[in-house]
Amino acid sequence: MTKGSRVSVDGLWSKRSWTDKDSERRISDVLTVSKFRLFTETELARPEAVGDDAEPTPDESIGQPAA
């Protein structure tokens, strides 16, 4: 993965409060990732083929001849 890569992230976003060494109250964002997907160049070129549970069509399957 490099800067500018397209990704999809599922998870929980929450806030956490804490006190620093100077007794100042701080708030941090916490992201708990449950699912991460790095998109390929092919998926970016063909956005209609991308979905949460995208399965390859028979003509896209490896080892399957195109009909």
What does this structure look like?
The chain is mainly β and 67 residues long. Helices cover 7% and strands 40% of the residues. The protein has a domain of 42 residues. A two-stranded antiparallel ribbon has the order 1-2. Strand 1 and strand 2 form a beta hairpin. The two termini are 35 Å apart.
Oligomer: single chain
Could you give the distance between the termini? Answer: 35 Å
Query: What is the H/E order?
Result: EEH
Relative helix content: under 10%
What's the rounded overall pLDDT mean? 77
Q: Low-confidence parts lasting 5 or more residues at pLDDT below 50?
A: 56-67
Shape: elongated
Overall number of strands? 2
Number of helices: 1
Estimate what percentage of residues fall within beta strands.
Answer: 35-45%
Please outline the major beta sheet.
Answer: 2 strands, antiparallel
For the biggest β-sheet, the strand order reads 1-2
Structural class: mainly beta
Radius of gyration: 20 Å
